[in-house]
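Running low. Invent one:
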Amino acid sequence: MDSGSMWAYRLDGPMHYSRFESDRPDFETVAEGNVILEFLAGGICGSDIARCIDGGTQNRPGPTGLSLHEIVGRVAASNSDLKVGERVVGWVGKSLGLKQFSETEAEALAPMHPDMDEVAAIPLQPLACVLHGLSRLPEDMSGMSVAVIGLGPVGLLYGA
């Protein structure tokens, strides 16, 4: 992969993004357990909305690529079990996914079925969060009370 620039978006203010050119990550020095993803599709999570509305002014990470972590990408470089060229779905750490190439932890990603449409795969990421959360609960919850606070998409998945 050649070095040079890549596209990225910066949150400049409330509900306003600007496209700019940024340096590409170094494809030769990917941290252990990480991959560099080429952006194919992404989704805005409920946790991103407040940042979009307040323009990133509330002590959040720097503005480069903010407000997107739900991603479908193609592995462009890997220092993990994921293979270069493989399409994956998952999340990019620190919500820094709104750029052409993002480095993130491979354990936050899962390979996609080769026939699956990239845009249709985006809802798999919040479902994966729900399944991960459920896997942390005790196996036997008989007699326990449970509350799901909020019935957005993730809350509805928990309630199903």
The chain is about 20% helix and 30% strand.
